[in-house]
Design a protein that fits this description.
The complex is a heterodimer. By secondary structure, chain A is mainly alpha-helical. Chain A has 30 helices and six strands. In chain A, the strands form three sheets. Chain A has a two-stranded antiparallel sheet with strand order 1-2. A two-stranded antiparallel sheet of chain A has the order 3-4. In chain A, strand 3 and strand 4 form a beta hairpin. Chain B is an alpha/beta fold. Helix content of chain B is 33%, strand content 23%. Chain B has a six-stranded mixed beta sheet with strand order 6-7-8-3-9-10, with helices on both faces. A four-stranded antiparallel beta sheet of chain B has the order 2-1-4-5, covered by helices on one side. In chain B, helix 5 packs across helix 6 and helix 6 packs parallel to helix 7. The radius of gyration of chain B is 18 Å and the shape is globular. The chains are: A mainly alpha, B alpha/beta. Chains A and B meet through helix 15 and helix 16 of A and helix 2, strand 6 and helix 6 of B.
């Protein structure tokens, strides 16, 4: 009796606290994260409703002479739910979290729908235009048929893959007297795709070399042993996180001010972002090494260098290699788009075809990219698997040293030739790095003294909110579409009939092709279809989301425990019933986790789709850069860093708590 | 002779792991160190080769004060003391041979060893030591492809590369099943008897202590609570070491 009355007075107190400050009651009841989340959500929702009303008149109603938004009604319901939630929690009764989430969702999606310019009727009314693009996509300009009916590679094919043409002879040929002074010889001129591959390879190599030493400074277990090391550790980690938060394409904008347009600028932009990403992954790997071997080697009387050589290196080299291969895959993808701003590789080519309206040439480029990226993706995954699982084959004899194995020597020579060729194709010129253009100094100065006048901040914040909403809508749309398809792409569920095996391969193939092309490259299609703007960008993002998340979902389904399925089926349930009762409970947590992760990724992606006419903060950034207003551009970049870092932190925290 | 005098260790977080521990080990002894988990056995063994720096007290070995040795000399001392670990502490991705050879690092020039160069004589020695533990045909496979018992034998071969006069074995059989436990301890016994290597070995099970040790010491909460012959550990002693709740169990 007594305890129940104190319990109910406690509940009323908690509810009262939540009435005063949303989330305070939950905080008081020791649900700290819930309290903070509710508090943060309330403030954010209120701000957004007000912002939406001011800027876009979202949900505007006039009631009794007062102009307001009907979203405030939902907001009040949300606040009421928060009080009710605190009350139920204090009484130890289950609360309805879903209600609160639903309320917040109604507000967020209403805002998102309006600010991203969703205009569904355009999808229908402009369908004929879309059909034209679609026809071009399936008829890429790669080959043509001459009068005799024979097929030849087209001019466009040569632009993409390269062609053999007469060029001035290289110096060494004339010096050795093999050809005359001004004689031309046939030589292979690299196409834009080859240039792109070279960019991705070089950036991966350079960033691996640079990230290696950096990662040791960003590893807590190493730095904690040195005096003042902890401070260096925090500084390094902060720098890595800031550099990583800025997309490669945005780095491209900065780099071209430094060294000018070209594929070299692309390589540098890719390298900068890649160093930060690899540095973080490497340092986390160093932090997780097994201390046992270090102890054992130290105990045998080895000195510090020997300990690093024999106990640390063997442990970190395989995972480092695996991360480098993963990064190679990512760098190749980014290399296809960095040219949009940096002016090199296939990205620049795509930009030009779009400008000229050459959709058949554009289609050819997309197909070429898809082929390359699918191959890279496959090789990278296979090699990673081999490195991490390792070869445990028994060999009786001692392995030959490297310099005695002809195969290893052949690989080394091929590698060096490849490197020199890549260096040549991308026109690497390290001297320009040390002779930056005069405007670059101004850019650095302007980036330190960014423009914080309220007008500019308001404009930038507005575009940033649109960007985040684009990412939210694209994630939702893509994930909902991917859901049914992911079941078709999961081998353990599709069954063994010939038809379902075909469906499996077809779905996987569609996922692989769609996900091999970056959202930025899709924007042109949708800009043509529904017009330039945030809607086109959102649709482009939704396509990549569909493919990326579809694959992740399908992999998650393939990894589930089939035991429960067997058990439910054995009770005489149908296949559908078994999926609902045995599969769904296992896959909902990873699905939600992947969706949040994808939103995080999409926010980064959404910051750049504006470069291709996809709306959001990217358009603003390229405008400011184009007008040389670097201190305003600095404001945009600063806000991007803050938002991306926050998203990264929040999504990691949420996913951590879900597992 | 190894003399441990008034050894104490307090960790930076305030845990006192060893409290004024003193004992002596004659050359050629097989000394078992017993006690509950957390009683300070691992700390004691690691204080002897200074993998852990003791807070107070001395460790004197053959008239050399290990606790006072400068870093350069410590390397020379460590290479004469082999160590065997509960979790084997092998570099799992490296071949068995490299793991065994790493026991020789204290003897060779750091610059040579950076390029994985070991003299042909060291390589022969490594193969001989692998032969000794019955693993010569596994020399070039990756360490993680071996079973637990085999990995611990690699650990012994690595310690043998040091040509040790003393072996510290920290729970060498706690991660292994009983049959393997006997096989590992038999190798240690063999080294102790045939090569005259002094062995300090922490053990969990009393029957293993009875079977292999020539003498035993016991720790409880960081204090030395027993030293003597294994057979002297009677029921009263046993309860003093392991607590009133404990029951004697035996393995195989």
């Amino acid at each position: 009796m007594n305890s129940s009355s104190s319990n109910s007075s406690r509940a009323i107190f908690a509810a009262f606290l939540s009435l005063l400050i949303p989330g305070a009651g939950q905080w008081y009841l020791k649900s700290r994260w819930r309290g903070i989340t509710i508090f943060g959500a309330t403030i954010t929702l209120a701000f957004l409703i007000n912002w939406g009303l001011d800027n876009f008149k979202i949900g505007q109603i006039v009631a009794g002479g007062v102009t307001t938004s009907w979203l405030w009604i939902v907001f009040v319901l949300f606040a009421a739910w928060n009080i009710f939630d605190a009350y139920r929690m204090a009484r130890g009764e289950p609360s309805f979290t879903g209600l609160g989430v639903a309320g917040a969702a109604v507000i967020l999606y209403t805002l998102a729908w309006n600010v991203t310019d969703i205009n569904l009727d355009r999808l229908i009314t402009r369908l004929p235009d879309a059909a034209k693009v679609a026809r071009n996509l399936v008829q890429p300009d790669l080959f043509f048929q001459d009068d005799a009916g024979a097929w030849h590679p087209s001019e466009n094919f040569g632009d993409i893959f390269g062609r053999v043409e007469d060029q001035p002879a290289p110096e060494w040929l004339t010096r050795w007297g093999l050809v005359a002074e001004d004689q031309k010889v046939p030589a292979y001129a690299a196409g834009k795709l080859i240039e792109t591959i070279a960019m991705g390879l070089l950036a991966t190599l350079l960033s691996t070399i640079l990230a290696l030493p950096i990662s040791f400074f960003a590893a807590h277990n190493i730095m904690a042993r040195l005096p003042g090391g902890t401070i260096i550790y925090y500084v390094m980690r902060t720098i890595l996180n800031v550099v990583r938060a800025v997309d490669t394409v945005i780095w491209g904008l900065l780099v071209i001010v430094w060294i000018g347009l070209g594929s070299f600028a692309g390589v540098i932009a890719l390298t900068i972002h890649s160093v930060a990403a690899l540095g973080k992954l490497y340092s986390e790997e160093i932090e997780h090494i097994d201390p046992g071997p270090i102890e054992a080697v130290t105990a045998s009387g080895a000195n510090l260098f020997q300990v690093i050589r024999y106990a640390v290196f063997p442990q970190i080299i395989p995972p480092f290699l695996a991360y480098t291969l993963l990064r190679w895959d990512i760098n190749m993808r980014m290399a296809t788009v960095v040219g949009f701003v940096a002016g090199g590789g296939i990205g620049f080519f795509v930009l030009e075809t779009i400008r000229k309206g050459g959709y058949e040439q554009y289609a050819a480029a997309l197909w070429a990219i898809a082929v390359v990226i699918i191959i890279v993706d496959y090789i990278s995954a296979k090699w990673r698997e081999r490195i991490l699982i390792g070869e445990t084959k028994v060999s009786v004899a001692a392995p030959k040293p490297f310099y005695k194995s002809p195969r290893a020597i052949a690989y080394a020579i091929l590698g060096i030739i490849g490197l020199v060729y890549c260096w040549d194709v991308t026109r690497i010129d390290l001297r320009t790095l040390f002779e930056p253009a005069p405007t670059f100094v101004r850019l650095l100065y302007d980036f330190v003294t960014i423009d914080l006048t309220p007008d500019i901040v308001e404009i930038v914040v507005k575009q940033m909110i649109i960007t985040i909403f684009q990412a939210l809508l694209a994630t939702t749309l893509g994930a909902l579409l991917a859901l049914p398809f992911s079941f078709l792409a999961a081998r353990n569920l599709t069954g063994r009939s010939r038809l379902s095996v075909w469906i499996y391969y077809l779905t996987r193939f569609v996922f692989d092709v769609l996900r091999s092309i970056e959202a930025l490259l899709y924007v042109a299609i949708f800009a043509f279809w529904v017009g330039i703007g945030a809607f086109a960008g959102t649709l482009a993002l939704a396509v990549t989301t569909f493919a990326l998340i579809g694959k992740l979902y399908a992999d998650a389904i393939e990894n589930i425990d089939m035991g429960p399925m067997e058990a439910v089926m054995s009770t005489g349930a149908t296949r559908l019933q078994a999926i609902v009762y045995a599969i769904l409970p296992q896959i909902i947590p990873p699905f939600v986790s992947y969706s949040i992760y994808q939103w995080d990724i999409n926010v980064r992606m959404a910051t750049i789709i504006g470069f291709a006419g996809g709306g959001g903060v990217g358009l603003l950034l390229s405008t400011y850069f184009g007008m040389l207003q670097y201190h305003k551009a600095g404001t945009v970049v600063a806000l991007i860093v803050i938002v991306v870092a926050l998203m990264d932190f929040a999504s990691a925290k949420i996913r951590e708590r879900m597992v | 002779m190894l003399k441990v005098e008034h050894l104490s260790k307090t960790y930076p977080n305030g845990t006192q792991a060893l409290y004024d521990v003193s004992f002596q080990v004659e050359d050629g002894e097989f000394l078992a160190v017993i006690g509950l988990s957390g009683s300070g056995k691992s700390t004691l063994l690691r204080c002897i080769n200074r993998l852990i720096e003791p807070t107070a007290g001395q460790v004197v070995w053959n008239a050399i004060d290990i606790t006072a040795a400068p870093t350069s000399e410590l390397r020379n001392i460590r290479r004469q003391i082999g160590m065997i670990f509960q979790q084997f502490n092998l570099v799992k991705r490296s071949p068995v041979m490299t793991n065994v050879l790493s026991g020789r690092l204290g003897y060779i020039s750091p610059y040579q060893s950076l390029f994985n160069y070991f003299s042909p004589e060291d390589r022969r020695r490594a193969l001989a030591n692998l032969e000794q533990v019955g693993l010569s045909e596994k020399a070039y496979v990756r360490a993680d492809s071996l079973s637990g018992g085999q990995q611990q034998r690699v650990g012994i071969a690595r310690a043998l590369m040091q040509e040790p006069k003393l072996i510290l074995a920290d729970e060498p059989v706690a991660s292994l099943d009983p049959v393997l436990a006997h096989s590992i301890l038999k190798y240690l016994e063999q080294l102790n008897k045939e090569r005259g290597i002094t062995v300090l070995c922490s053990l969990h099970f009393l029957d293993l202590v009875h079977r292999y040790a020539t003498r035993a010491i016991a720790l409880k909460d960081g204090k030395l609570v027993f030293q003597g012959l294994p057979k002297e550990i009677d029921d009263a002693q046993f309860k003093a070491i392991y607590g009133q709740e404990a029951e004697r169990v035996s393995i195989v």
